[in-house]
Amino acid sequence: MIHFLFVYISGVPFPPSDLTITGCYSRTTTITWKKGQDNDAPITHFVVEQESTYFPEEWHVIVNITDPTKTSYTLQLTAWANLTFRMRAINKIGPSRASMPTPKGQCVTSVFRPLMFPKNFRGLPGKANELDIAWTPMTKLEACNGPGLHYILNYYKILDNGQKGKEQKAVIMDPTVDHYSIPNAGYYQLWEFQITAKNDVGEGPVSDIVKCFSGQDAPTSKPENVKLGNISARSIELIWNRVIVTRESVDGYNIYHWDQSKLVETHRQNRKTPIGAKVFKAISTPEDIQKQNVTGLIPYTSYTLTIKAFNSGGEGPSSEEVKFDTLEDCEWPYRIIIELCTCNCVL
Question: Which CDD domains does the record cross-reference, listed alphabetically (predicted)?
Fold first, then answer.
């Protein structure tokens, strides 16, 4: 009897072939291809890779085609670019090698207005009477829909009666710039502002309105009447009087605490708050009495703490120091199991 042994060896598929594209000027194109052999492992999907004038000699996957029966697909394209495409087929073994790319210069897209505004748009108050409007400059891929990219800022102050002041405009011609300083921003003055990107074709979308106060001085008063509430092994409750200001704000309180091992360092360097002291931030509330639980303390340890009010201008003076001891930790980390054994002995 003759026995036959058949061995099937699967491999990655052959790449797609005969890639063609139809029309790119309107920033869409249909790419078509012929499927290659699957090498005894069915093709599961295709990927389309793109090279552009923004990233020459770099290929980036722009779409994953999950239907393996397709032989055409409509691509959304970047504006104002010279694009080249290639494809890979993929099965359970892995991806094929890249197909032959489409000819260079065959897909050139038209210019278009920006499709977005700069990200991370925000206000940055500085010293008293200072305010910067800041953003992240747009990248090549985000910005290069056409020549002449620049930014337009619209900003205005909010008057004491709540009405909008005179609207002002700033044009930032250098697209790599990341901020603009409002002239004569005023002391702790509320401003509102928006940004848009524009090129030679037109303006893009406008950002949401961002609100921010201009710079101010740090609080000049210290927290008073600091008292201790409930004390446990790992936390303590603090109570103190709210710091009252006239023209400024109090955004919160920094609670500095350190154990007795840092007292020597404190006296040696003649510092009110020692280097290495831990800080716990508390948000300011409108109540006259402020309360905060400070957690993360070490059981059975002597601590010293002080509190400082802060705002965008910095920290105010320290409160009087308060000393306390945390309690012993009642949670025993080990479990002791005692087993009593009895035996019958014959003497």
Answer: FN3
Residues 25-50 have pLDDT tens digits of: 888 999 999 999 999 899 999 999 99
Read off the DSSP letter of residue 140: H
Contact 324/230 with Cβ under 8 angstroms? no
DSSP for 210-277, written as a single string:
EEEE---PPP-S--EEEEEEEE-SS-EEEEEEPPP-SSS---EEEEEEEEGGGHHHHHHHT-SS-TT-
pTM: 0.75
Every domain range in the chain assigned CATH 2.60.40.10: 17-109, 119-213, 224-326
In the predicted structure, residue 266 carries a pLDDT above the cut 50: no
Check the CA dihedral 322-325-330-333 and report its sign. positive
Residue showing tokens 């609080």: 219
Residue 313's CB is within 10 A of a number of other CB atoms, namely 20
What's domain 119-213's architecture? Sandwich (2.60)
Residue 274, both tokens:
């020692």
Residue 163 amino acid letter = Q
From 292, 289, 212, 279, select the one nearest 244 (Cα to Cα): 289
Nearest to 206 by CA among 118, 88, 331, 97: 118
Contact between 112 and 27 (Cβ < 8 Å)? yes
> Residue 126 has which token pair?
């500085």
Are the C-beta atoms of 253 and 223 separated by less than 8 Å?
yes
Can you read off the two tokens belonging to residue 147?
A: 């020549």
Domain 17-109 in this protein, CATH class: mainly beta
Does the domain made of 224-326 have the CATH classification 2.60.40.10?
yes
Q: Are 117 and 205 in contact (CB under 8 A)?
A: yes
What pLDDT score was predicted for residue 224?
96
